[in-house]
């Protein structure tokens, strides 16, 4: 037996907001737009939403203070604004941080809870959520997870509930045309990691595997083209692959790479996709042992010969190294082991396995 749930209505393609934005009318008369400080204004996504909302007679306000790896304090501040202004729905515009924040903000607009309950529930129904991705990486536009920085736990943690699946998502690849080379690389590798981890997850299903293989095809054909100017056609393929990978992890969850990567972001300041990328090759070494047939399929789709070939590719586009002390590794292992991502991993994960993967980072 397996279950498949994807309640988000997705509109994909250039100018999809202008063409299909009338769907927003079903959600109410006032919206809270949740963004970062700059990119949504630069890439045209905020203006596209504003024009459509104005045309539909829907009023709106903006909260543009979402930082990378959003904090509990930030989402609480935005939710207070949403309640004060009596908004009917929340629109997250941006990369993973604004979209994840928007999901939790919508939840906090209808739920009174302390910081502990925020990550565990139970929850009542949030305000309706709309997502507009402006990077091709997180897949948050179609998932039921909002990741926040949690200082109480000393790491990043997820608010995870089907209640925060977006109702609508508008994925317009043209909003990614101005994304920098660094962010393009980081987000593409994040999407690759989602597809691979979802494919290798203990919770993978026949349906999720179809989407994972399709995501790998569309991402894999462009892995050597992530630098310099990218055409709209390439940007479109990357966003399509990223969204499919998001659909995958909405079913399967992520695995060890994400569970370990959160520590590298929280304590070492590595971008999320970059942290995943540095961990991915050695993780795939484990997968070659535990799921050889699926690992071989990954290499076939990506045109790689194995985990060492992947390691060479990652080293070329992400020449980072992370030299961790023994005490740091011990701390990160302790934070990783209780994570749901460890339970989703097909390999038998022990503290020594995790420690070994962290130690390998300095050889990059």
TrEMBL record:
List, alphabetically, the InterPro entries matched.
ADH_Fe/GldA, ADH_Fe_C, Alcohol_dehydrogenase_Fe
Sequence ranges assigned to domain Fe-containing alcohol dehydrogenase-like C-terminal in this UniProt record: 184-305
Tell me which Pfam families the record gives.
ADH_Fe_C (PF25137), Fe-ADH (PF00465)
Checking Gene3D superfamilies in the record gives: 3.40.50.1970, Dehydroquinate synthase-like - alpha domain (1.20.1090.10)
**Keyword Oxidoreductase annotated:** yes
Asked if the keyword Transferase belongs to this entry, the reply reads no
Q: Which UniProt keywords apply?
A: Oxidoreductase
Which domain of life, per UniProt? Bacteria
Which molecular function GO terms apply here?
alcohol dehydrogenase (NAD+) activity; metal ion binding
Name used for this protein in its record:
Alcohol dehydrogenase
Q: State the organism named in the record.
A: Megasphaera cerevisiae DSM 20462
């Amino acid at each position: 037996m397996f279950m498949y749930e994807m309640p988000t209505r997705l509109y994909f393609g250039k100018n999809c907001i202008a063409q299909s934005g009338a769907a927003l009318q079903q959600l109410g008369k006032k919206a809270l737009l949740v963004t970062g400080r700059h990119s949504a204004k630069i890439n045209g996504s905020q203006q596209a939403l504003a024009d459509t909302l104005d045309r539909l007679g829907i009023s709106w306000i903006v909260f543009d203070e979402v930082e990378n790896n959003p904090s509990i304090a930030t989402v609480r501040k935005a939710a207070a604004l949403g309640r004060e202004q009596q908004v009917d729905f929340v629109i997250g515009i941006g990369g993973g941080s604004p979209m994840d924040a928007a999901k939790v903000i919508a939840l906090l607009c209808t739920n009174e809870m302390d910081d502990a309950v925020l990550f565990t529930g139970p929850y009542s129904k949030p305000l309706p959520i709309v997502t507009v991705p402006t990077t091709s990486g997180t897949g948050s536009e179609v998932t039921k997870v909002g990741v926040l920085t949690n200082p109480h736990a000393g790491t990043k943690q997820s608010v995870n509930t089907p209640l925060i699946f977006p109702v609508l998502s508008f994925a317009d690849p043209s909003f990614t045309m101005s994304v920098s080379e660094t962010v393009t690389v980081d987000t593409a590798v994040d999407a690759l990691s989602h597809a691979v981890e979802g494919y290798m997850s203990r919770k993978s299903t026949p349906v999720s595997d179809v989407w994972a293989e399709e995501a790998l095809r569309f991402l894999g054909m462009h892995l050597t083209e992530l630098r310099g100017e990218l055409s709209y056609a390439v940007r479109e393929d990357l966003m399509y692959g990223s969204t499919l990978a998001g659909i995958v992890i909405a079913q399967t969850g992520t695995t060890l790479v994400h569970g370990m990567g959160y520590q590298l972001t929280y304590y070492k300041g590595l971008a999320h996709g970059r942290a995943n990328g540095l961990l991915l090759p050695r993780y795939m070494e484990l997968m070659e042992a535990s799921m050889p047939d699926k690992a071989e399929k990954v290499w076939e789709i990506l045109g790689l010969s194995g985990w060492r070939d992947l390691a060479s590719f990652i080293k070329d586009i992400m020449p980072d190294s992370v030299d961790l002390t023994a005490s740091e590794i011990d701390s990160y292992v302790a934070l990783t082991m209780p994570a749901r991502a460890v339970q989703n991993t097909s390999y038998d994960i022990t503290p020594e396995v995790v420690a070994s993967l962290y130690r390998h980072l300095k050889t990059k």
